[in-house]
Amino acid sequence: MSTHNVWTHKGTFLLAAVGSAVGLGNLWRFPYLTGENGGGAFILVYALTIFAVGIPILIAEIMLGRNSRRSPIMGMRFLTRTHNTSRAWESIGWLGATSAFLILSFYSVIAGWAIHYTGLMFTGSMMEVSAADVSQHFDRLLASPALLTLYHTLFIAASALIVGLGIHKGIEAGLRVLMPSLFVILLVVLGYGALIGDLGAAADFLFTFNLADLSLEGWLQAMGQSFFTLSLGMGAIMAYGAYMSGSASLTRTAFAIAVVDTAVAMVAGLAIFALVFGAGLDPAEGPGLMFVTLPLAFAEMPGGALVGGAFFILVLGAAISSSISLIEPVAAFLVERFDMTRPQAVTIMVIASWALGLLTVLSFNLWAEGTIFHALFGRSAFDFIELLTNIFMPLGGLLIALFAGWALTHSEVMKEMRTNERWFHIWRFLVRFVAPAAVAFVFLRSIPQVEG
Ligand code: PHE
Ligand code: NA
After folding, report:
1. Near ion ligand 2, which residues have CB within 5 Å?
2. What is the pTM of this model?
């Protein structure tokens, strides 16, 4: 018995998955982590894990969702029963819910910064200001827990409203406009960055691969980012897979998601670093990178107030289509398991995540130093939560790969994949051996180095 309705259009899953994948991970997190980790080597590990590990696991995760047609936790429970395997596999669902809850907590805080900048752009108060003014402005925003909490609350409430009312399933038309517009405006910013900045230096920085440059924690961050950016290993894709039309192609869809997501990250990275090197800013600026470079470009651009305002609105749209995919799997579980109404389930998930998000808010000001997180883990609460997601998402992905690779039968997989035997064997080799080995390799190298 299937507990889910199925999306009738073949393309709806792709659109929803791209909506989930493309977000702050591409625009904010990818450039900032790349900058902190010295550029090319980080990108090399990131790209390798996307294509050798990410795509096969993406196929696996969609497959588990579509095969079970349930929310991730209930879906894994169902699959372990029908396959007579250990209930330990249910940990995939629980781990995913934990990751979703952790990610939403800081995602919403950062998206809140974009709310602030949307206002700044449209009012024109950032026009023709200097680089120093732009960065001072950002520092002042971060110094205010009240302002950060306000924006965090607004963003998470808007996301909760959309999922709670169930209208996240009707935003297909919106995504059809949003995604191409975001890409176009990024190209405009890239073009402008090439004009006033230093695109050559950006390309050198991003595409000079020297693995020796990458710290051991950098390896973990690069792999974590490849999962984060694809929304992978935490149930979001599984939850959407449960609604996917049975006739859409798994492999083609997974490739398309990875290619679109990577393209957005690369264009954003090139644009931001062209501006960074052109203006002599610091590539290792950290989480503020996007918020100090792009406003600077808009400040000098003709019509920058409008273009900048439109840009940050599109960023918010991309962020909200990701945050709703963080809420959905947990909410669907609470509905299926405890018979809650959808609004109740969403409220519980979101209030908990909101409260945890206050730790991230304070990590940028009152608790930037000297907390228990610094004493125990050598980092702020925000950095610690990011570290956990860099571990939990690949770990979830590893378990998904192993379950799909070893527990599902040949005929079940073929029913979902409907490709020829050759592709089946390539995929199964990747999920059985390559993906688990790659994840284990990075874990064994880097986790013992994460200093406490
Ligand atoms: N992939 C999203 C981004 O890049 C973040 C995300 C992670 C969304 C996990 C859902 C699940 O912004
Ligand atoms: Na992404």
Report:
1. 21, 25-26, 229, 261
2. 0.96
